[in-house]
Design brief:
Blueprint: E1 15-18, H1 22-35, H2 37-42, E2 47-48, H3 59-70, E3 75-84, E4 91-96, H4 98-109, E5 127-131, H5 141-150, E6 154-158, E7 160-166, E8 172-179
Antiparallel strand pairs: 1-2, 1-7, 3-4, 3-6, 4-5, 7-8
């Protein structure tokens, strides 16, 4: 780890996210680049599902996660409208259905593999972040209205989760794809 900040260190072993299709991710990445290029440099647009892993998982632990994820069927995700957590400097795309993501989150967290001692474990709201205020323009009501006016809601089919892990420079990439559904092939095992 090259001088990671304290908030970054729990992410050493990665996390499970929804990695949207290229077209959705590219549109959100464009917004992230414009309004918070530092956060964008850490990770492309995604929807967090879990807290970070506690450790590097053994083969049998991965098999358990893959088996658990297969119990959940693919589903449609709607994103938008744009909302905020103001005064906390975060603007994001609302994600629906929240309950499907929260069910996945709860099941995965129940495996004991994830760091549940971090903030927003229990009050997590599924979202796709545009800006966290790490860089770019001031995150305020004016910026929220500007982003809302230029954003278009959409949807995509979620048929897999992704295991993302940071490189030494704290830049996340997909290391494993985990297919939803009982008819999934043995990917990720």
């Amino acid at each position: 780890m090259i001088e990671w900040e304290d908030w970054q260190k729990p992410y050493l072993h990665g996390s499970i996210v929804i990695w949207p299709p290229d077209d959705v991710r590219e549109a959100a990445n464009s917004q992230r680049n414009a309004y918070d290029p530092v956060s964008q440099s850490f990770c492309e647009a995604h929807i967090s599902v879990t807290q970070p892993l506690l450790r590097t998982l053994e083969s049998n632990e991965w098999k358990g996660l893959v088996s658990l994820i297969r119990e959940f069927q693919a589903f449609r995700i709607d994103y938008g409208p744009v909302k905020s957590f103001l005064p906390y400097p975060c603007i994001w795309h609302e994600i629906r259905p929240k309950n499907r993501i929260l069910e996945l989150r709860q099941a995965l967290h129940g495996t004991g593999c994830f760091n549940l001692g971090l903030s927003h474990t229990d009050d997590f709201i599924p979202h796709m972040t545009i800006t966290e205020g790490a860089s770019g323009p001031a995150v305020n009501e004016d910026l929220l209205r500007q982003i809302q006016a230029s954003s278009t809601p959409g949807s995509f089919k979620c048929d897999e989760l992704s295991y993302v892990r940071p490189a030494e420079q704290f830049s996340f990439s997909v290391h494993r794809r985990l297919t939803l559904g009982a008819n999934a092939s043995a990917n990720g095992a």
